[in-house]
Structure prediction request, 659 residues.
Amino acid sequence: MGRVRCHRARHGAISDTCSAPQPGDTGDAVSLDPVSEDQRNGGPGPIEHYALLSDLRTAALVGRDGSVDWLCLPRFDSPSCFTRLLGEDNHGHWRIAPTGPVRRVERRYRDNSLVLETDFHTDTGVVRLIDSMPPHEKNHNDEPCVVRTVEGISGEVEIGIRWVVRFAYGHSMPWVRTIREREPIPDEYLLALAGPHTVVLRGDVLPVRKEDERAHEITTTVSGGQRYSWVLQWSSDPDDLPAPMDPVQEVRDNEDFWRDWSRRINYTGPHREPVYRSLATLKALTYAPTGGIIAAPTTSLPEALDGNRNWDYRYCWLRDATLVLLALDNFGCSAEAASWRRWLLRAVAGDPADLQIMYGVGGERHLLEWEPDWLPGYQDVSPVRIGNAAYDQLQLDVFGEVMDALHLARERGVAETPDSWALQRGMLKHLETIWQRPDKGLWEVRGPDRHFTHSRVMVWVAFDRAVRAVEEDDLPGPVDRWREIRDSVREEVLREGFNTELGAFTQYYGGTTLDAATLLIPALGFLPGEDERVRGTVRAVERELRHGVLVDRYSTEPGTNSVDGLTGREGSFLACSFWLVDALALCDRRDEAERMFGELLELRNDVGLFAEEYDPHAERFTGNFPQAFSHLALVNSAAMLYGGHTREESSRRDGGSRR
Prediction:
């Protein structure tokens, strides 16, 4: 039985009193206070109060109040039909919860699955809400659905079901009808239609129309041993609706899928549960038809609670390429790693001059950004953004990320193809003509272009991996020219990116501000961890950007010369915090690294998930959720500390190592 964690956050995130799991529980159970003030007022709760459901095509977020507040259909990047997360009740949600006071809430995933259990403890009894989305990994014709079941555990509890569907990000109110059919089998359901959008709701007790609110509601009493189920199904064709499903069997199949999948994970080091949960989260954020992994299933959850740092993260970033391959392949998820490589090659195919920093889950290139002005934003933090204008930014680091990822794939035994190598040579030829230009950098700033130190290091990575491809893999190419450029870039970075007065690498050439991305320098193999310039950079980051166990990616404090052109002080970037763990380990400060790693794990929410950032002042998550980058960094830190390969190592073909 897992241990119990007490995570104390503002806004009533989790109560100070934690209780042990109930008999029969299959995972960690953490006691939560009932409902936050935001939820009482009809809005979303704190980000850390949500749990993830996924069918490997799209995802839903379920609050600890029993409300599905976010669901896009049929893909991760499709318009949402439940949008309370970015607005209010009337923007769409589906809540199943006791009607009376809830004294305690306990949640957990069943084992390593994405079957979520939420126990509501009331004065009259206990009921359990079981939520899942049946995974669709192979059959491309499967249509997404959400299965919800309430079980009576003890006593007698009145529950309420409130179903408010609003398509097109809360803007389109559907026509909802109750349909009763007798042939070929008796079937009763709610059918919601609006333009191209169609969903069907079936259940043991269907909610009824509440005319004055354009919602559907019903109450029923659940006694110990009783069970009620509901299934929401999306349809691509209102004239060809999906057939009824057996909810009990669907949940059982869901558990079996995740149980079989988790058996492939071969991690045996410390902190096994967080590593497994992170790998399952990465799997859950994978779009199965293509292998693309999204950064997060949400848009516009604010990085700053008082600014405009709200972005759409429902896309695939090339910056994640190497980290994804490392995380998945290190611990037995080789099929997912191979799928990601195939997605990567398809997405970047074409003219190297057209290389983008991100793509849609199917490789789509145009991710036009717009603002749905009818949505107030998460807890009134605006704007809400759909799409991401950063897709056409120049970020030179992506060339290094792609070359590094494909080099890693070769080292893991994935045979290089002539087409793939020709594509890489084309990228390098283009990079030769543009590498000296300023860019927007890893963090996609919306301020002026600069010569960012991390971008230049990644240019070095691109040419270094090309040289190694020739030297280690006997691939054809102008190795002398590539080697000359690689060495020139290295000399430039050491000369222009290192500030001797600070004793550290700076965010950009000629600057005096720091950037946590420079913590990656030893992991990338640019300099060894024992180099005093690396050690000095680590000390400087600890001094200027570290807050306890957390690390900012760069300073956004009021009065600082922020380079990003945005407002508001953002939270600490969780991936950067794990990068410091890695850097400490590489600088022979392993005890500190292990201690910091364990402390970071305590910041996960009650079901083991991370957002993009953590605000140490407000003591809550900020940014999109759950965030792949955070979980990638967690998994790769575990590999760094407790077994697995790191990206700076040379060829490991056949288990060997050439340095």
Observations:
- The longest strand covers residues 145-164.
- The radius of gyration is 25 Å.
